[in-house]
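Deliverable D5.2: sample structural annotation.
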Amino acid sequence: MSHPPKVLVLLDDRAGNRAQALGVAEALGWPYSTLELAYTRWVKLPNILRLYGLPGYHPDTCQALQQTQVDLVISAGRRGAPAALYLKRKGAKVCQIMGADLPGSLFDWLVLPSHDTPAEKQNIIKTLGAPHRITPASLASAHSQFIETFRPLAAPRIGVLIGGTSKHAPFTIDHARSLASALSAVQGSLLISTSRRTGDAQTAILYQLLTRPGNYFYQVGDTAPNPYQGILAWADAVIVTEDSVSMLSEATATGKPVYVYRFTEKPVFHRFQQAFIEQGMVRIFNGDMTPCSYTPYRAADRVAAVIRQHWPD
């Protein structure tokens, strides 16, 4: 093509959605711009009722959309889908990540996880996990950034990424105690990061039971830079709690052994994990840290490859 397509990434107010949309844009390698979406109370309407005009969007967002002319729109989550389809009516192609409570045929590309067993349709791109922004370059940068933090810790360095309560299951105080007990038996240095969903009481228990010489513990609110990518870069292996699709997807982009810690019996979590287990990328954490190897997987690369392959010259 003589000129790369003009790409717009719609950014909503959810960090996970933003990371997925930006991950695909960055993997495409085409220049892109972003539009921050702002909403009114009508955003809660079913999306099928928001397809005509721009109900649910703040007037500033509406004005920006009306003035925008692009070739490709990338959106993630239900809130951005009506805006993306508005731009499609103006001539853009649309890559929608995750279902949006709308017929999939409305989108040029619809990105869905394989564990949800989506139908075999020409415009559906199935991925093992969620698109994200973890790349070899970002990991190399994080490795340099956190060299003074993690190099002094003894190998093996075990990254521990702790999520917490989700819409599917709570992460209780008892769960926190059980996780701490399991981690205490792991040989090596623990590089631990909790999240906003972990809970204050649960974080306090984990901190009390796991803070010891040779371990690193980060919690939301710490003044230190967020070490998330630094942990992925420096860890020899990674343990991830089962509640987060994003964390497991990002961990498997490293090519390092990844273990999932289960604290519920929710099939919705297990279906997602099974897709990675069957590919040899993930094991259930049971105390056995036997190394495994696999090819790093990035869903964003797969999505970008399909779009480039089918983009009209």
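Annotation notes: The longest strand covers residues 7-11. The two ends are 5 Å apart (CA to CA).
The annotation will be released with the project's public dataset once the embargo ends.
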